[in-house]
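The instructor's notes for this session suggest beginning with a concrete chain rather than abstract definitions. Hand out the sequence below and ask the class to guess, before any prediction is shown, which regions might be ordered.
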Amino acid sequence: MKPIIIFIAIIIVASAAQSQSLDAVNKLKLAQAFEQAGEFDRAVQMYQELLAADSTNYVYFDGLRRSYTMQKNYSDAIQLSLRRLQRFRNDPNIMVELGSLYYTNSEEARADSMWNAVIALAPKNLGMYRLVASVQSQDRLFDKTIATYLRARKELNDPSLFVNELASLYALMMNYSDATKEYLKLLEQNDSQLGYVESRMSLYTSKDIGLSEAVRVTEESVAHDNNNIGLLRLLVWLYMEGKRYGDAFEIAERLEGMISSSGNELFGFAERVFHDKAYAVAAKAYRAAIDQHSSLPYVPQAKFGYARCIEELSAQNDSAALAANEEVKSSSIFPLESQPTYEGAAALYMKLAAEYPKTEIAAQSLYRVGYIRYHSFFDLDGALRVFDSVLVFIHDNSMAATIQAAKGDIYIANGNLEQAAKMFSAVMSARNATAAQKTQAQFRLAEIQYFKGDFSGSLAELKPLTANLGTDESNDALVLQYFINENQAAYPDALRKYANAEFLVRQKKLNEALADLDDVIGLYSAAPLADDALVKKAEILTTLGREDSALMAYQKLLADYPNSILRDKVQFKIAELYQNIFHNKEKAIQAYEQLLASYPQSLYINEARKRIRILRGDTL
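After discussion, reveal the predicted structure:
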């Protein structure tokens, strides 16, 4: 019988232990639930009961310490930690957290002493420094965190330690000089880290002082190590960040000579600068890559890039291009162009198409010629002939869809809406047309119905676009849909005249468009679109050089349409006329200030403020 009694006793003891264990688990869950709910008094009570039953359990200890801390009961949290430390001497995790508690309790000297004691446990152990720095950083003691990392470097005699951590901390504390020095160390260790370094530095190079310090430190480093490829490439990037494209080009040329990349370095630089719209410098880089390296694998692309620069520099109404032109004129790098012109760009494209016939480069080049013929010279027949010559050798791909869409725009411009619709329908059904090309074609088909006065047909074409707000055309589609719905029921004749005026503008028949708009303004002044007609009229008058009449149209809208949603736009347009056309600084400032006063929620507010500062000569 004795063995049976012993067995029963064992079962009873085991059951009791299991019951106690389950009770502890449930109580722990309850304590954690109270803690998460912010009921720290109740959490403390639970954790105290748990710790009384099992004083060695770290989870119970840590929960109670956290709850004390959330109650701001730092004294009890400290005493709890000290008792734990007496039992588990030299436990670095307890010690670093105790240091944090001391600091939170305004006992900074004791906090430093505790953290120093952690490091003293193993002064050659990297993990100890990382542990201390982690807690210091968590407490936002960034100066102390930096000191800990630097101490680790000194004690372990390794200046490469904690480069990322220190760089981030220096940048956070706006010490951009030391932050840059740390990132340069990372780059010196491994120049393949250039992309990462640029991405991290970009967090502060967006600020003038951050960029200035980054450039200064990098220039100093390059002066001491002028053959370091990684440093030079970083300097190119920094110069480009500061829009110092000429300086960047000099370094890019230097790099090309150092690494002998057969022009790839210069070509890559040219592509980046072109993307930044620094067309004059990009042209220099393309030409240098072509002229200095006949073995460049990307010669056709470089020649095309150069021609694109000439085209962009020919935009005489672009102030940035005009400024760049001054640099181009004084440069011998443009043997074909003493001054960039659209005709010169077109000649370059034609030469490229002849040099690389029936290739992608030829197709792209001829497309640009057609684009120039249409957009710059309004030579519709010439543009169509060029586009047709491309379609002969390219087939069912996205380039074909691009050209068909361009032909559709030209057919609208010459008044042939039926042919235009055929072109855009072809894009819609093209197997290799992109989604963006198809949505643009869909919107053009809606516009064609609108120009015809078939407003129901236009709304039907717009429906797929307004159902999918993720496309580029969706906003334009919503605007046109609203415009038609707002006007077609009560003022269908006014809407037809306005739509025809817009169609005439596409054909550059501006005086005929003005006649239709005057009819709308005179006959349908109560129509919702009457204020739109005044704005459209003013824009056409400005294009025709009749700015005084444009100003009167804008002023009429402000006087006659007090509820128009276009009033802030018109006020901004008036200010622009005074600033850019009449060159009347005082009236321009007054007009911009009127915008600020009358329309504080306008989208033009920030630009108006900026222009006021410029006109006054304030520092931006």
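Then share the key points. Residues 2-36 form the longest helix (35 residues). The chain has a mean pLDDT of 90.
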